[in-house]
């Protein structure tokens, strides 16, 4: 059977996106170069850490040749991203970096404990981790670009399921259902006033002739629109949050709004044009420094809610609907759904948010956690309660009960094939060397001596 070359890739990317991988100060140095893709390196320590990530989660690791192959593909994506000018905004990287550092401080208890554990200064650790985060985000963006057109139909899923011998049906790992109640840390009046004055200054500068788009590109914290000069394109009524839309629709073309506050931060809006029921606007968004927000208020609030839930005076799902500030989960009683499949059943493995995995690993079904500080995907400081609703034991796949999981497997297989095809078309664009120790690996489906791919490498 033909091996799918990127079968471990998704797991590797998921692991790299959650766990800091810089080596600690103690132990034998493993930083020997074992593969090189243009100017990108795979170190022996990278391979060992990838292997140990499976062991640490009680999972059977793939063969090291397969892991090395996935690591080389990741490096090739970085090399191709450089060739194709695929970049990730620094603000996205900074937000992810801040989230990871905050989590590490929470886990170790203090900055001093982190320094002692790793034998490096915080500045050095943060610098190393920032490079990792940026590379991981670029790889993720390349994967999305390569697989953006991949689709799966119910017929594809049925064909896949029927084509598997009954004794070879996929084994579904343990899954969990988890609820959350979220409260956000709120900026002070003083913090908001600083941002308000900045936006009013921008408004005056535009009114005096400066280019709105240039100011948005340089200052807006809405990463998606900033690169387009703050341009949000045409929007139908009801698409934007109410404060933003209400302010935008009061403007005349080219007119600037006063400072508008929404759940996303503070905005300066310029209406470009209207077209029937649609309007075209751009904005500059500023947000408070979420690293400096006080989380004691939401922590006390959630602690009180937890006490009510524990004495059965309040059901968790009702509390989530009434009090959670996370709109994506509140209406569903706090239930968290998989971003890709929409299922409420989350795989309890390396693809799960690491902080959640660690907490659930210490909880029993039916329990509610103590308030936990965390950072949202868009960088906000928040506190949440986690509710361990249920656990589904590992089992053999059933078409009806596990349709969403089977669909995800078929989609993953299709994406893997798309990456496989992409690799074979792109391999001529980069130069790859592999250490002689690994020449026995059938990397990319070839052995040492295959024309375009492998040559002697090692410490260069």
TrEMBL record:
<dbReference type="InterPro" id="IPR000297">
    <property type="entry name" value="PPIase_PpiC"/>
</dbReference>
<feature type="domain" description="PpiC">
    <location>
        <begin position="276"/>
        <end position="387"/>
    </location>
</feature>
<keyword id="KW-0413">Isomerase</keyword>
<keyword id="KW-0697">Rotamase</keyword>
<keyword id="KW-0732">Signal</keyword>
<dbReference type="InterPro" id="IPR023058">
    <property type="entry name" value="PPIase_PpiC_CS"/>
</dbReference>
<dbReference type="Pfam" id="PF00639">
    <property type="entry name" value="Rotamase"/>
</dbReference>
<dbReference type="InterPro" id="IPR046357">
    <property type="entry name" value="PPIase_dom_sf"/>
</dbReference>
<dbReference type="GO" id="GO:0003755">
    <property type="term" value="F:peptidyl-prolyl cis-trans isomerase activity"/>
</dbReference>
<protein>
    <submittedName>
        <fullName>Peptidylprolyl isomerase</fullName>
    </submittedName>
</protein>
<dbReference type="Pfam" id="PF13616">
    <property type="entry name" value="Rotamase_3"/>
</dbReference>
<dbReference type="InterPro" id="IPR027304">
    <property type="entry name" value="Trigger_fact/SurA_dom_sf"/>
</dbReference>
<dbReference type="InterPro" id="IPR050280">
    <property type="entry name" value="OMP_Chaperone_SurA"/>
</dbReference>
<feature type="domain" description="PpiC">
    <location>
        <begin position="173"/>
        <end position="273"/>
    </location>
</feature>
């Amino acid at each position: 059977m033909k091996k799918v070359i990127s079968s471990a890739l998704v797991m590797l990317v998921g692991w790299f996106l959650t766990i800091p991988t810089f080596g600690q100060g103690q132990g034998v140095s493993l930083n020997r170069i074992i593969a090189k893709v243009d100017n990108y390196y795979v170190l022996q320590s990278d391979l060992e850490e990838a292997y140990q990530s499976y062991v640490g989660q009680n999972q059977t690791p793939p063969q090291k040749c397969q892991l090395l192959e996935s690591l080389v593909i990741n490096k090739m994506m970085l090399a191709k991203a450089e060739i194709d000018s695929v970049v990730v905004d620094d603000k996205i990287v900074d937000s992810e970096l801040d989230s990871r550092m905050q989590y590490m401080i929470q886990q170790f208890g203090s900055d001093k404990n982190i320094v002692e554990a790793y034998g490096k200064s915080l500045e050095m650790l943060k610098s190393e981790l920032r490079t990792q985060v940026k590379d991981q985000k670029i790889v993720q963006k390349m994967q999305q670009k390569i697989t953006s057109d991949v689709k799966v139909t119910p017929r594809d899923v049925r064909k896949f399921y029927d084509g598997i011998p009954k004794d070879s049906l996929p084994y579904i790992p343990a899954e969990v259902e988890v609820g959350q109640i979220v409260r956000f840390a709120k900026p002070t009046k003083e913090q908001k006033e600083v941002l308000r004055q900045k936006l009013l200054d921008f408004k005056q500068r535009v009114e005096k002739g400066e280019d709105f788009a240039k100011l948005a590109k340089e200052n807006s914290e809405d990463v998606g629109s900033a690169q387009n000069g703050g341009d949000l394109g045409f929007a139908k009524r009801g698409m934007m949050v109410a404060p933003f839309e209400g302010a935008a629709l009061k403007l005349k073309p080219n007119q600037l709004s006063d400072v508008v506050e929404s759940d996303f931060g503070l905005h300066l809006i310029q209406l470009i044009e209207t077209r029937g029921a649609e309007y075209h606007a751009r904005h500059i968004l500023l947000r408070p420094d979420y690293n400096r927000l006080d989380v004691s208020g939401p922590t006390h609030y959630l602690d009180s809610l937890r006490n009510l839930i524990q004495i059965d005076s309040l059901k968790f799902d009702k509390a989530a609907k009434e009090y959670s500030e996370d709109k994506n989960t509140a209406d569903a009683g706090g239930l968290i759904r998989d971003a890709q499949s929409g299922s409420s059943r989350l795989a309890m493995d390396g693809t799960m948010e690491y902080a959640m995995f660690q907490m659930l690993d210490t909880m029993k079904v039916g329990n509610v956690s103590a308030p936990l500080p965390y950072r949202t995907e868009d960088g906000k400081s928040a506190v949440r309660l986690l509710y361990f609703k249920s656990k589904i034991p590992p089992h053999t796949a059933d078409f009806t009960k596990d349709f969403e999981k089977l669909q995800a497997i078929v989609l993953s297989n299709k994406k893997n094939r798309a990456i496989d095809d992409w690799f074979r078309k792109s391999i001529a664009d980069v130069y790859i060397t592999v250490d002689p120790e690994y020449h026995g690996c059938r990397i990319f489906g070839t052995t040492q001596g295959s024309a375009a791919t492998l040559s002697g490498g090692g410490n260069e």
